[in-house]
Design goal:
Chains A, B: InterPro entries: Ser/Thr_Dehydratase, TrpB-like_PALP, TrpB-like_PALP_sf. The structure is a homodimer. Chain A is built from 11 helices and 13 strands. By secondary structure, the first copy, chain A, is of the alpha/beta class. Chain A starts with 6 loop residues before the first strand and ends in an 8-residue tail after the last helix.
């Protein structure tokens, strides 16, 4: 593993002429192009001329299920030094109306974040760090903990003091040192732990989000899989927090077109909670990055006060749009998905919510894919609420089924 | 979908000469061979002569991830009338010591039960039932609810009054009518709802477990996938409650050998909680079925007072053994898996726990696979416990990391 990456260097997303060697991976964005007013991420460049022609047709090692996961796409990923857990290879589930749902709850820690952390923990191994440090209130932290454990590295998670009940157990499960601290303390502590303990930081460290140079690369595999399974869709609707997933999905499609393996790139729709929406605000105001006040929302996985330039690139270069589904729309989409057998957390329903609230003036040419990022077990309300014992007498049970609209059989 | 099944009829597991038409599927075992002292299940027979030679090499529709799931194996399954959710296709994750874990938490409702319910809900559609009814305290019920919702059928779950907190939310998620009733009331109510509302029963209705005729067939796909990915292993360790999974896995391997696609069948090890263990007791006492007192165990997914003849068939015909890991062994295996990045519920760790407690006199020739049935989100303790805010001062954080055995970097 990790031997056949075609990664060559890092480049600024603000200016492709600003280049850095591949190692060490930049964890604070692009220092040369960023300023106090805007933070620019870097991305990874590859030797595209050497990508095999059958890139999209190559099956996964071991017939598709060998547990090595992203290795199928190793040529266009950073070196995968960390062992895999069978991340990726998630199904496209077709809803009754023909919309496809890319069910990312089928990853090793049941969210899309595993694609990112396979890459970031590989980076930590690559630089010889004894551990990773991550500021996260949920999926990112647990996923980092799982991949660190698998790779034999330590992990510190700077988490939220008030995670949902099941999420708390999840964060603790993989042996990470979990420190619930106030939000304002998380980023300075990440810096300090990175500096004083030599731990590799796998979450953001800049004013506007830039994140880890290698992380978003892992999300490109979502696009590769969609094309391998379905061809190029007309549009992809992506739950959007800091836009790493959005950017990765866009870049994956853009690479396939560049390689001549496909002819076009789908329109990318960012789906942020209406209570916030820094990417929508940046696009509206003609800025690269901006900050907003975030109001009340239960979509805690994607409530962000600042955007990343990455998301702006994905939306503008694909001819997409920034959508702002509110909590009611997300709840509606969550219920719609549950009614089709898919239980997702509220943030994960933002993609379908965006589609369902799309103005009728928008046209999409081709199949539509909504990314559902994570399972309902991570939801805010999961593990709360009441559950009263039912009267087991037949009369009571019968009445309850009748009240639920069920009908006795005709005989 | 559902057009290319080679299923022909149902047969008694007690006597293969006792046959029934394929429809309707039997939901109360084999009436002709069962008696008050022993309940015998039926299984499905197929026109094996017509199985395509490339059965194991045929990729899944749509390149492996199209969301149709078990359809890849449709010739050797009952007709799959119910739409899929991309069940199956789960990864084999290789642990540090070379043992493989078949991670069934990667299914649509994050347990192996989805393979069963694709088949049982297909049966419900096949008989024209308006809904399904299931007695279950967990994974089975939620999975049935998801597949029923996907198929447009109603679902009644007769559940436990005291499920783990996150499990309660899970059971409620798919719009099923969930009735928490005392254990003793569940089976009579299942019968009555089946009779008076015409709902198709997808859980057991006999004194000793027989279950649904089509259900265990779905589990054969675990064996097909293992062989497609790895070849025939030396042994498979299976968390065992009523033994449907155990039997299905054995039957899948046995079919491949019968078809000449493989040369042998691995040894099947049943892994029941030491607090119960009716299959181990039946084997010890030379009985086909028996009942035991079940003591205290947190492995609530597999604590069963009676066994099924199915499990006995799997263990004896494969030259396997009945193992009885206790809760401490299961906790040890659960911790070992978490340390490799896999968080499973306690019951799901029974397979690895069985392997780890195997007497050294047992030899296994070839790779070992442990089936991990379900995610840690379903565990009894998930969503409980405390989580105190940490002191965010650097001195306190530093002390905590040092206490956890982390070391400052040398500079």
């Amino acid at each position: 593993m990790g031997t056949d990456s075609l990664a060559t260097e890092q480049r600024s997303l603000a200016d492709p002429e600003v280049r850095y060697p591949l190692w060490p991976p930049l964890t604070r964005g692009c220092p040369r192009t960023s300023s106090p007013d805007v933070s620019y991420p870097v991305e990874v460049d590859y030797d595209y001329a050497r990508v095999p022609e059958d890139f999209l047709r190559t099956p996964a090692p071991g017939g598709g299920h060998s547990g090595t996961g992203l290795d199928r796409w190793a040529p266009l990923l950073p070196p995968l030094a960390a062992p895999g857990l069978g991340e990726g290879g998630t199904p496209l589930v077709r809803l009754a109306d023909g919309v496809y749902v890319k069910d990312e709850s089928r990853n090793p820690t049941w969210s899309h974040k595993d694609r990112l952390n396979r890459c970031t923990v590989s980076a930590a191994l690559g630089v010889g760090a004894p551990g990773v440090v991550v500021a996260s209130s949920g999926n990112h932290g647990a996923s980092a903990a799982a991949y660190a454990a698998r790779a034999g590295l330590r992990c510190v998670v700077l988490g939220s003091p008030t995670p949902p009940p099941a999420m708390r157990s999840f964060l603790m499960a993989y042996g990470a040192e979990v420190l619930p601290v106030p939000t304002a303390d998380r980023w300075p502590l990440t810096e300090r732990i990175a500096e004083e303990f030599g731990f590799h930081p796998v979450s953001n460290l800049t004013r506007f989000h830039t994140g880890h140079a290698f992380g978003a690369e892992g999300y490109k595999t979502v696009a590769y899989e969609i094309v391998a399974d379905l061809g190029v869709p007309g549009a992809v609707f992506v739950p959007t927090g800091y836009g790493e997933l959005l950017f990765g999905v866009w870049k994956g499609f853009a690479e396939l077109r560049r390689l001549g393996l496909t002819r076009r790139v789908p329109r990318l729709f960012s789906c942020e909670p209406a209570a916030g929406g820094p990417l929508a605000a940046a696009l509206r105001d003609g800025l690269h990055t901006t900050a907003v006040e975030v109001g009340a929302t239960d979509a805690y996985g994607i409530e962000c006060p600042v955007n990343s330039y990455r998301g702006l690139v994905a939306v503008t270069r694909s001819g997409g749009r920034a959508l702002l589904p509110d909590d009611a729309a997300m709840r509606g989409a969550q219920a719609e998905l549950a009614g089709q057998g898919l239980w997702v957390e509220l943030s994960a329903a933002a993609g379908l919510a965006g589609l369902r609230t799309l103005p009728t003036t928008e046209t999409v040419d081709g199949p539509v894919v909504c990314v559902a990022t994570s399972s309902g077990f991570k939801d805010k309300g999961t593990g709360t609420g009441s559950y009263a014992e039912a009267d087991p007498s037949w009369a009571a049970v019968r009445d309850r089924l009748l009240a639920a609209g069920m009908e006795p059989a005709r005989r």
